[in-house]
Amino acid sequence: MSASKFKFVSPGIFISEIDNSQRPRTPSNMGPVIIGRSERGPGLRPVKIDSFSQFIEVFGEPIPGGQSGDVWRDGNYTAPTYAAYAAQAYLKNAGPITFVRLLGADHSNNSALSAKAGWSIAATTAGLATQGGAYGLVLMKKDAGGGTWNGDSCLAGIFYTPDAAAGYRLALAGDDLAANTYADGVYDPPGPTIYSSTGVWIKATSGTSFTMALRDENAATVVKKFSFDFSASSSKSLRKVFNTNPTKVGTITSDQELYWLGETFERKIASVLASGNGAVYAAALVPMSNTANASDHNRSATPGSTPWTFSQFTGAVNTDTSTTASLVGTSPLDVSNLFKLHGLHNGDWESKNLKISVTDIKAPTSDYNKYGTFTVEIRHASDTDGSKRLIETFSGLNLNPISPDFIGRRIGDKYSVWNDAERRYVEYGQYDNASNYFRVEVASAVANGQADPSLLPMGFYGPDKYRDMVAASGAANAAIGSGDEILKFVPANIYQPHGGAPEDISDAGDGTVATTIVVPGHELRTTADDPKLSDPTDAYFGITLEDGSSNRPAEDYADLVRPLPASSGLTPSFLQHSFLFSLEDIVGSTAGTGATHTPGSHDDTTSLNGATGLHTTVLDAGYNKFTMPVQGGFNGLDITERDPFRNSLLSGEGELTHYAFNSIKRSVDASADPEVVECNLMSIPGIHEPALTNHLIRVCENRGDALAVIDLEDDYIPDHESNLAESSRLPAVSTAISSLKARGLNSSYGCAYFPWIQLRDSSKGQLLWAPPSIAALGTMASSAANTELWFAPAGFTRGGLSEGSAGVAVVGVRSRLTSKDRDKLYDVNINPIASFPSEGIVIFGQKTLQVTPSALDRINVRRLMIFLKKEVSRMAATVLFDQNVRTTWARFSSKVNPFLSSVKSRFGLTEYRLILDETTTTPELVDRNVMYAKILLKPARAIEYIAIDFVITDSGASFAD
């Protein structure tokens, strides 16, 4: 500090400390942008990852493919996730990477209904399966009392029959209530009419067992018969007998099916089977379509969200329990919506794996603090109240918008929306997100400070579900239900070519059927008495995932959190809240024992709060916590595809015509701005569609600081791309060369390799064929880590894939290239991956896709220039807006010259020169506020050809000569 800065008043010694040892912040490392599928994680947006362990935590493990099983519930593991292996290859040797997970997203102007995101099946309106659709399997246990067939009934499961299976349908076989026999799913009385069992109650063949036939109605034959049981413990339970893999109805499969079983509701089935005192069980297969299509799930990827939490009752309460208001149970008229949580990331992972608890709810403590407090817990969905697995906790929250503990401020409310016109994400919200999984939406009255400060989160709306169906048969051919149910009994006369009147669903003279077919929703905890809890007040009311019979997490939870169809015909009249939960409906002792949740108990004043008229009574008793589901997350993918982004879907498409094309292009564009995403490489492993790889190269050219590593068409075609025999899917050198030539590429910002390689997944012990871009990315990482990035990432020293340079175990190549093959490929700038008997598998080239001969037709030079431009631009930023004088020029030169000298000493350059004086920055440029420098470079070239003459001489020749 200068002496002039001291203030001298009285004599003394003045000492100041000046720290000139501070080092400037080191710029973060850069790596590739990798775009592709992964097991889970944020979708369609760039996420920076520093290590492979972090990648697994966020995006899951790489999937080698080939895994079948219950794809509907467990997810699609049938095709490899190449991008995840590319991430592993790079992160093994270096970091970071930026990963963009592909999900399905429509362009805002997408006009092609057949290629929209998600999936859909054309539904019938006549109750027939010949046009495809969703069909409900309905279960009833009869109560034998009286002359009426009463019983508990529910929707037990949903079958999906694609329109590609026209003429095929599933039908129950057995006897109906009037002892008419439906052999193989049809009733054939004397005469011309043959009736289907669709919409007819069929008796169990024994116990809880049934028989179902898959019929070909065009040929009037049975294709296959199934014997199944509604008991979950049976070896013939629903999900063990029927196909639960939707990819088997797709076009790329070796095991073609004509249907799949989707949702099943095991807990509700068990409840129905345990009810009543009769010995007769019945079921019927009925269409789930009216003006809405229950199999219409064409929508872009969306995040899951909780229902709205609402406050304590503040006025009159409606005791109407009918469904006419689309509500069931207690219907509060005077409650206030408070907040709900939305997933930060598109997709279904949060819905299937997380749930939200609101706990430690406390009323205001004094007149000076008018707001109560509460805690929000993000929990793993499969945990229990006695053994919680907390993911995140936000304690001491309140609804005071000016408080530092305001829920919006503490959890965060920011989110971003993709803008197709601007090709970028637009951010909304006020508070940064502190949660890694959710943002909060606060009701406007609360956020604006207009809500009553005494309001507390006391309950939540049950997620919407299909309306229950009232089935009561009367006159023959009577319409069943009110007409707004999506689940419809439509008696059918479909056995072509016969006609005739349809059969009534009544028992034809032995009484009528009276039952409400319940569409299952989330199960609620009914009692705090739990042997797994030491204190009943530790119980979380609200939803429960525990299966009471097995003490395991309920298997049907994944089906209950699925989104409802996207059909425009699915109006509110088709829906109802699955329940309305409130802590004010807790009945029990103020001592905190024997508490139960009894819907409507607040209305009739039998609940803790209803008896006292105070909303704090239940909280004071210790019952101050509840749990909500995360509902409706959706991946936006076609579930009938093993790989919903396969190249054969992309060919000839565009962003306005196909969701998969748009999703990939959008993911590239999300990483196009170098001020948003820093990178030096970009790749979409496994995608070779020319329109998309060309776009990737253009983006890299426009950025000027990244190299596109692309895969080529006419290389190996994996089995999830084609049904052809493997011999017809092998790589072809000549066609790969011809295809690349036809594209007319001439860019130093792209490179390509050939052929595919074979990887060994070390964690799963599985072999898979993988695109060569994976090996290229891994080798570039290891080459830069072990030497410098301007050394050629090729050859036996740095390109030995068998020696581990790829970062993943490479054990084979899909095509063994001859020396002539390698020459032909290299001549058109395709880098061969060669296999040698002794040296193993090696990357044997390092050309870019630039046809024009120059130093930039080599990868090591292009990567050197990307590095130099990025680093020098960072140095230039330190003098931006400084005075345009010699002193500033010298300061800039003093940074650049040592840097270039260091690169030269490390064999990146053979010579360089920086010119920054009046010859470059002329007075005219100074007047225009421009500093202009020239940097002349001679990049060091890699040795790619070695010529050695061995000269044989006479015995008398002297080597000294």
Note down, in words, how this protein is organized:
Strands 2-3-1-39-40-41-45-46 form an eight-stranded mixed β-sheet, with helices on both faces. Strands 5, 6, 11, 14, 15, 29 and 30 form a seven-stranded mixed β-sheet that branches. By secondary structure, the protein is α+β, with helices and mostly antiparallel strands. The termini are far apart. It is built from 21 helices and 48 strands. 18% of the residues lie in helices and 24% in strands.
What's this model, at a glance?
The chain is an alpha+beta fold. Helix content is 18%, strand content 24%. It is globular and about 115 Å long.
Name some characteristics of this structure.
961 residues, alpha+beta, Rossmann fold, 4 domains, 21 helices
Terminal-residue CA separation: 72 Å
Strand order of the largest sheet: 2-3-1-39-40-41-45-46
Oligomer: single chain
CATH class value of the largest domain: Alpha Beta
Number of individual domains = 4
Write the layout of secondary structure elements.
Elements: E1 32-36, E2 47-49, H1 52-59, H2 71-74, H3 82-93, E3 97-101, E4 118-120, E5 133-143, E6 149-161, E7 168-175, E8 181-182, E9 186-187, E10 195-196, E11 202-203, E12 209-216, E13 221-229, H4 238-241, E14 260-264, H5 266-273, E15 281-287, E16 296-298, E17 309-310, E18 317-318, E19 331-332, E20 337-343, H6 349-353, E21 354-362, E22 373-380, E23 390-397, H7 407-411, E24 415-419, E25 424-428, E26 438-442, H8 444-447, E27 459-461, E28 464-466, E29 469-472, E30 513-518, E31 541-542, E32 546-547, E33 552-553, H9 557-560, E34 575-577, E35 580-582, E36 586-587, E37 596-597, H10 608-612, H11 617-620, E38 626-629, H12 647-650, H13 659-669, E39 681-683, H14 690-703, E40 707-710, H15 733-743, E41 750-754, E42 757-761, E43 766-770, H16 772-786, H17 795-798, E44 809-813, H18 819-827, E45 831-836, E46 840-843, H19 859-877, H20 886-905, E47 909-915, H21 923-927, E48 934-939
Parallel strand pairs: 1-3, 1-39, 6-30, 31-38, 39-40, 40-41, 41-45
Antiparallel strand pairs: 2-3, 4-16, 5-6, 5-15, 6-14, 7-8, 7-12, 9-10, 11-15, 12-13, 17-20, 17-27, 18-19, 20-26, 21-22, 21-38, 22-23, 24-25, 27-35, 28-34, 29-30, 32-33, 36-37, 42-43, 42-44, 45-46, 47-48
